[in-house]
Amino acid sequence: MAGPLRPLxxxxxxxxxxVSDEQRSPYQGFNDGSVYPxxxxxxxxxxxxxxxxxxxxxxxxxxxxxxxxFYSEDIPSPIDPLELDDDDVRGSVVLDPQIEKRxxxxxxxxxxxxxxxxxxxxxxxxxxxxxxxxxxxLIERSAAxxxxxxxxxxxxxxSMGGLVVREGLVSMNERGxxxxxxxxxxxxxxxxxxxxxxxxxxxSWLIRILPGAKKAKGExxxxxxxxxxxxxxxxxxxxxxxxxxxxxxxxxxxxxxxSVANRVSSLFDEGTLSTNRSDGxxxxxxxxxxxxxxxxxxxxxxxxxxxxxxxxxxxxxMRFFHGSHKVSLWxxxxxxxxxxxxxxxxxxxxxxxxxxxxxDFELVHQSAEAENCYGPFNQADLRDPLPDLKxxxxxxxxxxxxxxxxxxxxxxxxxxxxxDEHSARDGAAGMVFRIDIYVGERDTSGIGFSDNVVFRKQxxxxxxxxxxxxxxxxxxxxxxxxxxxxxxxxxxxxxxxTPKAEVQSAGTVPEHPGQRTFHVVGTGFSATFRxxxxxxxxxxxxxx
Length: 544
Hints:
Helices cover about 25% and strands about 25% of the residues. It has 14 helices and 22 strands. It has helices at about 20-25, 50-55, 85-90, 95-105, 125-145, 160-175, 180-185, 205-210, 215-220, 230-235, 255-270, 310-320, 390-395, 490-495, and strands spanning about 10, 35, 45, 60-65, 70-75, 90-95, 110-115, 155-160, 185-190, 240-245, 295, 325-335, 345-355, 375, 415-420, 430-445, 450-465, 470-475, 505, 505-510, 515-520, 525-535. It has a seven-stranded parallel sheet, with helices on both faces. A six-stranded antiparallel sheet has the order 14-13-16-17-18-19. A five-stranded antiparallel sheet has the order 15-12-22-21-20. Mean pLDDT is about 90; it is low at about 200-215 and about 540-544.
């Protein structure tokens, strides 16, 4: 670990007229996890976000949820506020003097706070944003009382919780220009409908007659796909510090009517019912922000083994907050040499899935089933001019068409993510992750075969950080085993600079100093990828 952990704020989202069940839930569902009975060891049980964070050896947190109380109306100061100021203990978001003294005796570093905004009144996003600002300010004051350096809080927000965070950033900057970026370090959103709910274009009279709708009308209005309120992120915060986690498994979402509605909405966007492109509730195109990094997780919006109850959310968030290196992957060259139907109208799709070593979860997932691959392409070199993703995400979700399957960024950026060298069990073997490459073909006219797999193959990328850093690409796990893993010198000795080598040594890129290239060659597809590995955390000290 590279130093004291910043305080972590968890913000859950629900967005329904009746929130009484949520008010009775002490940790707002962040204590729910998943069981994977066909797995073993660490991959068998995921205990839930809060418990996993409390048990973590790499990033150990302490529970501070009870330190703050949230009330529908202002409450007076207690008889004895102890060392706290009157303003800390009076209002609707307040510190409890006794618990603050006991729980924060070692300061606020490494503490977890669950923001219970549904206890506040009135029910409006602006009110929830003010409450979040107040919570973060109270955390900052507690840090000052303990003479701690304060570098902002990290935030994980699920669903509507991300909209609450957006309003919180606005409220912070209203108190003082630049306050949001000082008070908040980084944000991870899980299935947040930043651009609205695709099928929520209900007429106002229908919203008014829903049970409890009068109290929740402000929340319901925030899901309007015609709104551009999501631009508020870039206006108040550096969106490169926001990671949007996008769910793709609509088939496992409990309320089936939502998935049906999302499929019907595709008819208006694409003229077809063949795609859903959602996590069951939120469209993939809505869960992203223009200019912000994103990653895809094959989980549904909520419920058992979902975006908020699966291990993926925890692991991806911890790497974004605390990872030692940022990894970027670009596709430089490609050639599809088979799969085009003779009589039909073929188009190609390309995607990758990436999984770290030793753990049974993915940092990113793309597949035909997830409906999130790049494309469609008609050219064999995959150089069709795809729409600019950032420009497409600037538009309201309700605008005709869904053209958000373009590259993740310039130069055909495929993926950017964060990894942690401290998670490697054997430092001598470097950082290793598996990359699954997929190329598929569809016949859009229905004459030939449809959804053919042109190419699918796994490779293992092994990174040895250093100056200069080295990259080796393995076709199998022969030299990556647990019993006798090859160290850096041994790997370097057996590696060859050829695409078909068992261990391929990556090449340098004169026009991109500090980056490496490797090649993929197989039946029907060949490609050249470029990899960038950038250290983002110091080796020792400094949690800033």
